[in-house]
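seq:
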Amino acid sequence: MTPQENEKTGLIYGILAYTVWGILPLYWKLLNVIPAYEILAHRIFWSFIFIGTLLLYSGKWKMVVDVCKNKKNVLLIFLCAAIVSVNWGTYIWAVNSDQVVEASMGYYINPLVMFLFSVTILKEKLNFWQITAITLAVIGVMIITVQYGKVPWIALVLAASFATYGLLKKLINADAMGGLALETAFSAPLALFYILFKQFQGIGAVGTVSVSTLLILFGSGIATATPLLWFAQAAGKIKFSTLGFLQYIAPTITLFLGVVVFKESFTPTHLLSFGFIWLALLIYTLSNMGKLKKRDTPAEITDSY
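struct:
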């Protein structure tokens, strides 16, 4: 594919991944009778089973072998596994503790961390309109953080962990499926140990919840791995800063669910802060589409992508 086609494909994968992540609170709410960390363990284990099945069916186990040949990749993937587990656990706990709005805040803050990484580590170039959009987004996040009235630790953990995960995925030189197979393989033994421990204690989900709930729990592997595969594809094809702005899709959907479906509060201050963020997203999108006249800015630096 040409660079333009490659970037367009990555954009589609990114939009799909973030849209699914936006609606996942509906999925986790169906499992709120199960403790968050047990959901996390099942999520990791069944993701491993799902990815392993895909590899067996497609005969692509060689991907995993190829990834393992690069020690740097293995180390980065191990770090990915640890960081994404923290992100998943925090997110499930937040959703099932009726803190969906704060969770959405975390994923609004996350792109700002990604922009910081893109400029300082990956040396990507941002034009005048993109910098303007980032500035508006910062204002929006500051408003909602001040209005919140205390340190939003859930939001900060979600933002920092997923931004770091995204950066590591950008640095890994590996096929998306092979990399994700290793990620889940690193975490699956510990997850299985926790599941069995809960079962032997007589307090595990299997045997204590309905069959329909168990099926939803086992299906968490598909719900988890599919958008992660799409995200990995996107991370390898588009700019990290663009990936950061696509992030706004998920918290916008999540915010809607939190307010409309789960009936959490949304004040005029929330509307003001989110208004800045939505305006930032519009400007950034128009800039990427070439609809806004480009202007040089001293803040531009060499793009190494």
